[in-house]
Amino acid sequence: MNDINVKYSEIKGWDKDSYVLLDIRDESSVGYGIIPGAVHIPEDKIDEKIDEVSSGRKVVIYCTRGVFSAECAGRLREQKQIEAYSLEGGYTGWILENIKIEEEKEENGSRKDDIEKSIRKKFHKQLFSKFAKAINTYELVKEHDKIAVCISGGKDSMLMAKLFQELKRHNKFEFELVFLVMDPGYSEANRKVIENNAKLMDIPITVFDSTIFDAVYEIEKSPCYLCARMRRGYLYNKAKELGCNKIALGHHYDDVIETILMGMLYGGQVQTMMPKLHSQNFEGMELIRPMYLIREDDIKHWRDYNNLHFIQCACRFTDTCTTCRTDGSSVSKRMEIKNLIAELKKTNPFIESNIFKSVENVNLKTIVAYKKDGIKHSFLETYDENEGN
């Protein structure tokens, strides 16, 4: 089994009809990108579908980093006598290899120029216009602000950085930007993906290290929630140290509506992801979400149009970490909500905008109870005063 791992550069030399490339990551991970030509079959469905998919061909399997895929390939060899291989480095390794190819093709910054041109031209209405609208509607950027644009390495935060650069180019008033990347203990490969993408896209990142992954390693209950909270604290602290008064996060429209439904269905509460928040622990600091009105599908279209590839989650503890949400929820619940919205949209095309508007059109006279500053209030407090109204 020593030859179970194979590099992408090797299989490119194989006859295309001699093998099939299988992506065994979960649905959420695949939503962040897939190797062109790959067939997606979740790991738990491999055994029942492999014969149909392989049809006598070699099978090259990949996960996020080549851990689970090696185990899966070994099992298929032993139990099914299939000539199975694991893609070395998994999807992350393929991204690195792809970036290297892009760097070799790069001439006079043409890739960067094409990426920026796509924002100004092809995706102006879907991306930059909505970015600017959120900033104006919610008053997210003001004169003399110094904003830490927080980059995790995914498609959302990388696009946010480019949109801020475009906004800066218009420069209607003075404000400063710092493109901040926190390394909580990334693997060497994940950090390299972030740095290489930033270089390719001409984003001048400031990277600082932390030990968050070490701190949450032994935590059994809600480690992802704790990790997210700690990340936020580190980002605030570093941003303030650099003289910033705001941090910008890359949450988008779909994150907002999913959070609204998750709160109702799983949290028993009506709340939303706010476009901006004052920090409770860092005086004078504010969190802003300028991607608030941008649809995730439009971000994906921009990514794919420009042949860009980003990491999903760089957690070093799991091969396909998909649970790092700031509200502590697991992605399985978020995927349930995402799928529910997709089903509802089949019969009501306005379902997404209606969910979004539901937290803008709250009728306080029809609310049984609500909380303000941590204190619960009942409609009975003013019920008799409104008699006859």
Note down, in words, how this protein is organized:
The chain is α/β, with parallel strands linked by helices and 389 residues long. Helix content is 45%, strand content 14%. The protein is built from 15 helices and 13 strands. The strands form three sheets. The protein has a six-stranded mixed sheet with strand order 8-7-6-9-11-10, sandwiched between helices. Helix 2 (27-30) links the parallel strand 2 (19-23) and strand 3. Helix 5 (90-105) runs parallel beside helix 9 (188-200). The chain is globular and about 80 Å long. It starts with a strand and ends in an 11-residue tail after the last strand.
Topology:
Layout: E1 5-6, H1 8-11, E2 19-23, H2 27-30, E3 39-40, H3 46-54, E4 58-62, H4 68-80, E5 84-87, H5 90-105, H6 110-120, H7 124-137, E6 146-150, H8 155-170, E7 176-183, H9 188-200, E8 205-209, H10 212-216, H11 223-241, E9 246-248, H12 253-267, E10 276-278, E11 286-288, H13 296-305, H14 331-347, H15 351-358, E12 369-372, E13 375-378
What descriptive keywords fit this protein?
single chain; 389 residues; alpha/beta; six-stranded mixed beta sheet; five-stranded parallel beta sheet; 13 strands; 45% helix; globular
Q: Main beta sheet: strand number and arrangement?
A: 6 strands, mixed
Mean pLDDT: 87
Helix content: 40-55%
How many beta-strand elements? 13
Instruction: Tell me the span between the first and last alpha carbons.
Output: 79 Å
Structural class: alpha/beta
Strand content: 5-15%
